[in-house]
């Protein structure tokens, strides 16, 4: 800090100025009375200050004084003494810090007042609008004018397809825009069947799923066009009466081979006892534990167990250890007969009619009929193969016009030109023509 003196310079100030302009060190002037003979006085530099100057010496902290302003007005001595003390500097810093705190508090109070405003939304924080705020709004802020959300069809050029079903749109309550649920092929099936009522729903659903996976817009129109463009005609739904008749016929022929056909009647103690006894007699080389395990694994039903044991007997290696000697026939029946007498007496005493016994007799007759038919069919195949081999050896067969093989006359087919063909070549030719959508003629 540079001090400037104002007003007249006193002897005290003059001495201070002289000491400030000299090099650092202690100085002492000679006595005027001792040097009266000399016309000029000299200044001597001392190594140490004298005793009367040691306490007021400024050797360690000299005060710089600007000697250019010696003629300035004012009280110079008082201005030199007006130096800021450490206490004053500390008080000034405290005042400045308090002023800063007051400014920050004022800023925080103003921000809190702004946040209390209902229409104020802080930056970076989403504020959800209530539906009742739009009760009387008419204009650009109306929920009906909000932009529609993006959908899976945005990339195709339009946010909503032309044939997009209205049932898929889910309208939300409030200002939020309508949202779209997951679009599936079933949502288009009703519109497709409205155009083509006799179209097969399974085929239509398959085509709609494929079109939807490719991102097509007009799923309904594309499916209908694809069905109408088929040369052989689009697949139609089957008639209910014919389907029921076929299912009924199939059920009557192969019903007992299933596990659910007349299951409510194929049960009871007598049914189970008869089934075990009959299976033990029909398969005398199969151990009884294996027969019972197979029967229990097939819901204790006789027909499925019978044909499963036949398959086990034809499997190599067999899933059981075959008995060295066959089981005596009638052993199972005698044991079952005794059990039947006991069970029948108990049922009669209880006043109950066991329907399982009658149902087992029907199921057993079905098994015997099926076994006889399969055996006869197998015998016909064997006899036919033997006859073909003999005709080929003797040369009495008919040569096929396609494969030139020797076949029996009853197994040939004649075309319009009189050529004979075997059954295999004729079937292959018919399948090829049908695949090429051509007419087959003989």
Report on the structure:
By secondary structure, this protein is mainly alpha-helical. Among the domains are: 128-233, no CATH class; 244-379, no CATH class; 397-442. The protein is built from 13 helices and ten strands. The protein has helices at 11-21, 76-81, 86-115, 186-195, 201-213, 219-228, 240-254, 269-282, 288-297, 302-314, 331-350, 356-394, 423-435, and strands at 3-4, 26-29, 43-46, 65-66, 169-170, 179-180, 398-399, 406-407, 412-414, 420-422. The strands form five sheets. Strands 1-4 form a two-stranded parallel sheet. Strands 2-3 form a two-stranded antiparallel sheet. It has a two-stranded antiparallel ribbon with strand order 5-6. Helix 5 crosses helix 6, helix 8 packs antiparallel against helix 11 (331-350) and helix 8 runs parallel beside helix 12. The longest helix is centred in the last third of the chain and has 39 residues, at 356-394. The radius of gyration is 60 Å and the shape is elongated. It starts with a strand and ends in a 7-residue tail after the last helix. Residues 106-119 have a biased composition (Acidic residues). Residues 271-395 form the E3 ubiquitin-protein ligase RNF216 UBA domain. Residues 1-132 are annotated as: Disordered.
| Number of DSSP-assigned strands | 10
Distance between the termini: 130 Å
Radius of gyration: 60 Å
- Strand-residue fraction? 5-15%
- Given helix and strand content, the structural type is mainly alpha
Contiguous low-pLDDT stretches (5 residues minimum) are 1-6, 32-40, 69-81, 133-147, 149-160, 166-175, 248-253, 348-353
Order of helices and strands: EHEEEHHEEHHHHHHHHHEEEEH
Main sheet: which strands, in order across?
Answer: 1-4
Fraction of residues in helix: 40-55%
- Overall, the morphology is elongated
Largest sheet: 2 strands, parallel
Mean pLDDT over the full residue set = 69
Please report the number of helical segments: 13
Domain E3 ubiquitin-protein ligase RNF216 UBA: 271-395
InterPro entries: RING-HC_RBR_RNF216 (IPR047544), UBA_RNF216 (IPR058758)
Biased composition (Basic and acidic residues): 49-58, 86-105
Region (Disordered): 1-132
């Amino acid at each position: 800090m540079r001090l400037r003196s104002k007003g007249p310079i006193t002897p005290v100030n003059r001495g201070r100025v002289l000491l400030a302009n000299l090099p650092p060190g202690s100085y002492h002037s000679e006595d005027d009375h001792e040097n009266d003979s000399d016309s000029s006085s000299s200044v001597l530099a001392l190594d140490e200050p004298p005793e009367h100057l040691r306490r007021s010496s400024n050797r360690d902290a000299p005060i710089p004084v600007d000697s250019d302003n010696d003629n300035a007005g004012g009280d110079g001595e008082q201005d030199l003494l007006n130096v800021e003390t450490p206490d004053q500097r500390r008080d000034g810093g405290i005042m400045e810090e308090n002023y800063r705190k007051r400014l920050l508090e004022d800023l925080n109070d103003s921000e809190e007042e702004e946040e209390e405003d209902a229409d104020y939304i802080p930056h970076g924080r989403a504020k959800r609008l209530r539906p009742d705020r739009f009760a009387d709004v008419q204009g650009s802020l109306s929920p009906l004018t909000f932009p529609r959300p993006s959908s899976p069809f945005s990339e195709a050029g339009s946010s909503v397809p032309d044939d997009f079903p209205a049932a898929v749109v889910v309208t939300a309550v409030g200002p939020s825009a309508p949202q779209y649920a997951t679009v599936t092929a079933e949502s288009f099936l009703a519109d497709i069947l409205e155009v083509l009522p006799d179209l097969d729903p399974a085929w239509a659903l398959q085509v709609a799923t494929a079109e939807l996976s490719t991102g097509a817009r007009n799923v309904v129109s594309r499916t209908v066009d694809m069905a109408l463009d088929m040369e052989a005609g689009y697949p139609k739904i089957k008639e209910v009466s014919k389907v029921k008749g076929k299912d009924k016929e199939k059920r009557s022929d192969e019903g007992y081979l299933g596990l659910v056909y007349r299951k409510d009647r194929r049960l009871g103690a007598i049914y189970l006892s008869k089934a075990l006894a009959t299976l033990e007699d029909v398969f005398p080389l199969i151990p009884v534990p294996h027969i019972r395990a197979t029967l229990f694994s097939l819901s204790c039903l006789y027909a499925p167990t019978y044909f499963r044991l036949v398959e086990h007997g034809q499997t190599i290696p067999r899933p059981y250890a075959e008995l060295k000697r066959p089981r005596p026939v009638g052993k199972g029946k005698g044991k079952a007969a005794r059990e039947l007498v006991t069970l029948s007496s108990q049922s009669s005493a209880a006043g109950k009619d066991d329907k399982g016994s009658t149902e087992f007799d029907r199921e057993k007759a079905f098994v015997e009929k099926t076994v006889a038919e399969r055996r006869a069919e197998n015998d016909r195949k064997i006899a036919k193969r033997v006859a073909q081999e003999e005709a080929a050896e003797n040369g009495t067969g008919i040569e096929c016009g396609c494969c030139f093989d020797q076949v029996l006359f009853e197994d040939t087919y004649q075309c319009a030109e009189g050529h004979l063909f075997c059954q295999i070549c004729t079937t292959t030719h018919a399948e090829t023509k049908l695949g090429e959508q051509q007419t087959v003629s003989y």
